[in-house]
Design goal:
Number of strands: 2
Shape: elongated
Mean pLDDT: 83
Strand order of the largest sheet: 1-2
Number of helices: 6
């Protein structure tokens, strides 16, 4: 999982932006942006503004989600996400598959 500052740097490069442009468009100071990138020192409100500028979710910036596109996930101010039903079901299937594999390995090791 990438760190916040790594994801921001990659997104800036992908969009052909400069740090100053990100700071201005996100309504934060350049010094604040440097603090975020060098010390991982960000307030949630700053992450929201940067995520909007970069057209990604806050969860993606923080490495908590691989959903980069805002159209894939709706974020609320409180930081909760709303996922499409099929995405949730797919995640649940993957969890069940992983649990079954773990159980099989555990059962084999006890035999």
């Amino acid at each position: 999982m990438k760190r916040v500052e790594d994801r921001i740097r990659v997104l800036i490069a992908e969009r052909g932006m400069t740090l100053l442009q990100l700071a201005i468009q996100s309504n934060i100071t350049e010094a604040t942006l440097h603090a975020i990138l060098n010390r991982n020192d960000a307030k949630y409100s700053q992450l929201i503004r940067m995520a909007r500028t970069l057209n990604v979710t806050v969860a993606y910036l923080m490495g908590e989600s691989e959903f980069q596109n805002i159209s894939d996930v709706q974020e609320t101010q409180a930081g909760y996400v709303v996922l499409k039903t099929e995405e949730v079901l797919d995640m649940q299937r993957k969890i069940i598959d992983l649990q079954a594999k773990l159980l099989a390995k555990f059962t084999e090791s006890e035999s």
